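We now fix the convention by which a protein and its fold are recorded. Here is one such record, which you should read through line by line:

>
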Amino acid sequence: MTSSLRVSGLLAVSILVLASCSSNAVADLKPGDCFDDETANGEIIEEVETVPMVDCDDPHDNEVYADLDALDGVFPGNDALFEEGMARCLPLFESYVGSPYDTSRLDIFPITPLAEGWADGDRKITCVLYDMELNKLTGSMRSSGE
């Protein structure tokens, strides 16, 4: 990761996508959706199929602010795909939140497909924001200036 990116150690590894048909499937997330981290024994689970959806007016951990298609080709590996996601999500932050990333209390991470999903044609990168102090967000961060 480049030094210009502030990524919490807790969330430095992206949530990796597996296929799912559930209404709260990670693959179905879209901008404006809010969700909580999936946890077990107090630890965030990094490879998940579904996430607990939350109304953005209620306290929540994360908010989706963009989704994009990864560059096509051979699966680049989890680390390279995470780096691509960070590089492509960062420029979209300010237009969604309404303030520059460098001055925001919010941080970002990309949700990226695993090799299995890639082999099935999944190329979706989902850009997600969260409070860098890991405080719950309340209300949408869209145009919040946070």
